[in-house]
Design goal:
With 65 residues, this protein is an all-alpha fold. The protein has one domain (7-58). It is 69% helix and 0% strand. It is built from three helices and no strands. It has helices at residues 7-21, 25-38, 42-57. Helix 1 packs across helix 2 (25-38), helix 1 (7-21) packs across helix 3 and helix 2 (25-38) runs antiparallel to helix 3. The relative contact order is 0.22.
Length: 65
């Protein structure tokens, strides 16, 4: 059974990717999700899915700090 991803961890990863890769952050997160999916790591996949969802929804001012 997969463990729910930590929202703070997903947010922090998403913010780091957006800071480093800008508009390509979602692509990078998707590639990482594909890598862990190929390895069968459902917990890591849940984390990267949460990161992707955060990037797609766009951070609001409450999520920036």
């Amino acid at each position: 059974m997969a463990v729910a991803p930590d929202n703070t961890s997903a947010r922090d990863a998403a913010m780091a990717l957006m800071s480093q890769y800008g508009e390509d952050a979602e692509v990078i997160a998707t590639l990482r999700a594909a890598e862990v999916a190929a390895m069968g790591d459902v917990d890591a996949l849940a984390h990267w899915d949460a990161v992707i969802a955060f990037i797609e929804s766009g951070p609001d001012s409450a999520n920036l700090n």
